[in-house]
Amino acid sequence: MKIGHNPLKGWALAFLGAMVAAAPVSAQVSLGTVVDLAQRNSSTVKLADADLHKAQAALEQARDAFVPSATFGSGLPAVPSVGFTGGVPSILDVNVQSLVFSYPERHYIEGARSAVKAATLSLKDAREQVALEASTTYIELDTVEHELEAAHQQEGFADRLVSIEQERAEAGVDPLSELLQARLTAAQLKLRRLHLETRAATLSKQLAALTGLPVGTITPDHASIPEIPAVNANETGHALTGVESAQMLALSKQEVAKGDNLHMFLPQVSFGALYLRSTALLNDANHYYLHDLPANNFSSGFSIQLPLFDLGHRAKAKESAAEALRATVEAEQAQRQGEVKIAELTGSLRELDTLAEIAILKQQIAKEQLDAVLAQLELGNGASAQPGAPAQLTPKAEQLARIDEGQNAQDALEAGFDLAKARLSLLGALGHMEDWLHELHAK
Question: What is the dihedral of CA 310, 314, 319, 324, to 10 degrees?
Answer without folding.
Answer: 130
